[in-house]
């Protein structure tokens, strides 16, 4: 990509924010911009721009997914710079306790009567109740971000 590296740096930040992400790490010396995780849009959130393909939209509507953007800019000399984009997708995994058999209200409520129920994990060595599992990259969003940065840097009308 050719152009003023400082201008391209500003465009990169602008394009990430435009999609609803909040910047986490902006390190100009290392050429790294990272976002905080953003829960992906649902089918009814037509105004959001963090999911590109219909398949990704369906998946994010069925599961709780989040995306993290990581941009890296490297100087290539003579007014040129290399730009790479990585969008990681993670899925929320929750561990739910399943109650089998017949359960009576008295048995459930009788155990907690007269005391406060525990709000957290009882044993710190137990596995977390919920965790984010990496499921891959969003190559369509990566390509869309890079294309919009390139279009903006060259003066063309930016794409979404």
What does this structure look like?
- The protein is α+β, with helices and mostly antiparallel strands and 160 residues long.
- It has a single domain (5-112, 127-154), classed as 2-Layer Sandwich (Alpha-D-Glucose-1,6-Bisphosphate, Chain A, domain 4).
- The chain is built from four helices and six strands; from the N terminus they run αβββαββαβα.
- The chain has helices at 5-18, 54-62, 105-112, 139-154; strands spanning 23-27, 32-35, 38-39, 65-77, 80-94, 130-137.
- Strands 1, 2, 3, 4, 5 and 6 form a six-stranded antiparallel sheet that branches.
- It is elongated, with a radius of gyration of 22 Å.
- The two termini are 19 Å apart.
- The model has no long low-confidence stretch (mean pLDDT 81).
Q: What is the CATH architecture term?
A: 2-Layer Sandwich
Q: Major β-sheet, in short?
A: 6 strands, antiparallel
Query: Tell me, what's the shape?
Result: elongated
What structural class should be given to the helix and strand makeup? alpha+beta
Which fold name is given in CATH as the topology? Alpha-D-Glucose-1,6-Bisphosphate, Chain A, domain 4
Number of domains: 1
Please work out how many helical segments DSSP would assign. Answer: 4
- Tell me the total number of β-strands: 6
List the helices and strands and how they pair.
Layout: H1 5-18, E1 23-27, E2 32-35, E3 38-39, H2 54-62, E4 65-77, E5 80-94, H3 105-112, E6 130-137, H4 139-154
Antiparallel strand pairs: 1-2, 2-4, 3-4, 4-5, 5-6
Task: List the main descriptive attributes of the protein structure presented here.
6 strands, 4 helices, about 160 residues, six-stranded antiparallel beta sheet, Alpha-D-Glucose-1,6-Bisphosphate, Chain A, domain 4, alpha+beta
């Amino acid at each position: 990509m050719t152009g003023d590296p400082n201008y391209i740096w500003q465009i990169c930040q602008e394009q990430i924010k435009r999609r609803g992400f909040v910047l986490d790490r902006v390190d100009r010396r290392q050429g790294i911009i990272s976002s905080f995780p953003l829960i992906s849009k649902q089918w009814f959130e037509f105004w959001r721009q963090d999911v590109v393909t219909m398949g990704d939209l369906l998946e994010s509507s069925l599961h709780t997914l989040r995306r993290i953007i990581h941009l890296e800019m490297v100087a290539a000399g003579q007014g040129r710079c290399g730009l790479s984009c990585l969008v990681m997708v993670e899925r929320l995994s929750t561990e739910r306790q399943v109650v089998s058999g017949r359960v009576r209200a008295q048995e459930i409520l009788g155990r907690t009567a007269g005391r406060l129920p525990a709000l957290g994990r009882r044993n710190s060595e137990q596995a977390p109740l919920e965790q984010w599992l990496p499921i891959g990259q969003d190559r369509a969003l990566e390509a869309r971000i890079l294309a919009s940065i390139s279009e903006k840097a060259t003066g063309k009308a930016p794409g979404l």
